[in-house]
Amino acid sequence: MLTLYNDQHALHHGKTEMFRGELVPCFEVPARADYVLQELKRRGLGTIEAPGAFDDAAITRVHAPRYIEFLRLAWAEWVALDPANAQRDALPSYWPIRGFRSDVLPASFAARMGLFSFDAGTPLTAGTWAAARAGAACAFTAARRLLQGERATFALTRPPGHHAGADFFGGYCFLNNAAIAAQTLRDAGVQRVAVLDIDYHHGNGTQAIFYERADVQFTSIHGDPHTEYPYYLGYADERGAGAGLGFNHNLPLARGSDFSAWRAALHTALQGVAAVKPGALVVSLGLDTFVGDPISGFTLQSADYLQVGADLARAGLPTVFVFEGGYAVAEVGVNAVNVLEGFAQ
Ligand code: SP5
Ligand code: ZN
To answer: Given ligand 1 and candidates 169, 174, 201, which is best to mutate, with the most ligand atoms within 8 Å of its CB?
Structure first.
């Protein structure tokens, strides 16, 4: 297992997110990636390298130009509104819901903040763009190294990516690292790529990016959106559209589901993956399915993740793992590395 590590990740360090009318400390913190890195080193699981050369073309393949431009300049605009803003994170307060226009681009920074986002839980900070861009480089390099012959690679980066769509942030995500990895594989000639999202939350951003495409299959196992974030997407009847009809598979599970139910869904998911004979697999690796996760509702134990890795390996595909959620900070390292070790054995 080759790990590509984004050593710029801590440049994104949100202070607070909106929850039940209050600003509470962010769950998505730099220590998450630090624990994974520490555990990888402790167990000597493969080599750890820095991402290679990268230009923004790989981001533009997945994200809209006006969204990328917004992210690049957002912090400077935020501070220009009021020098005191340098001490506080930017959060959106206005959203263009049904009936409003989303083709306009208001001069107001607050209005554009809402145009390009879908929740008030994803603070934008001084280093968000730098961290997210380095994360895209990390995912890109993980895909490139796979093409150069690695059996499996791991993009160890944050902020996570799977909630970010072509032109929106949310769910702690800004650039969709898994989508960038999948598109990089496609652009290098891999005919069909499967993305398997095992984060607790539905990967709405990744689904939206590939929804009308047959060349990238998307499958997600997640908490039932009737009760779980992101609520408005991730239902079983979302099967893809146009050329992509039949290439999107959602496997929602009730809050409280245990590993045996989760593993049955994994086997269903992997059957669907095998059916399209992909040339490579991208795994959105969230560890918030863990019993101790503070914002989630499944009950997987640390040892279960070894089995998850072994099950994924049996797909027999070149595989890029991309780090997503997982907020039991002290355990996220062991849980992530258990998946990778189970895969490698
Ligand atoms: C990548 C990822 O896992 N994003 C998840 C975003 C979830 N945002 C909503 C969090 C809701 C927090 N609920 C707190 C419950 C405390 N008991
Ligand atoms: Zn999650």
So the answer is: 201
Question: What is the fold, at CATH topology level, of the domain defined by 2-54+126-344?
Answer: Arginase; Chain A (3.40.800)
The pLDDT assigned to 237 comes to 98
Instruction: State whether the beta carbon of 121 lies less than 6 angstroms from ligand 1.
Output: yes
Give the C-alpha distances (Å, rounded to integers) separating 289 from 255, 258, 341.
10, 9, 18
Asked whether 64 and 106 are in contact (CB, 8 A), the reply is no
Which residue blocks in the chain are alpha helix, DSSP H? 31-43, 57-60, 65-81, 109-115, 128-147, 177-187, 204-210, 259-275, 304-313, 329-344
Q: What is the ipTM of this complex?
A: 0.96
Q: Do 166 and 158 meet the contact criterion of CB atoms below 8 Å apart?
A: no
* Regions of the chain where pLDDT drops below 50: none
Q: How many CB atoms lie within 10 A of CB 333?
A: 24
What number of other Cβ atoms are within 10 A of residue 188's Cβ? 14
Rounded to a whole number, what is the distance in angstroms from the first to the last CA of the chain?
A: 10
Question: From the CA of 229, how far away is ligand 1's center (Å)?
Answer: 7
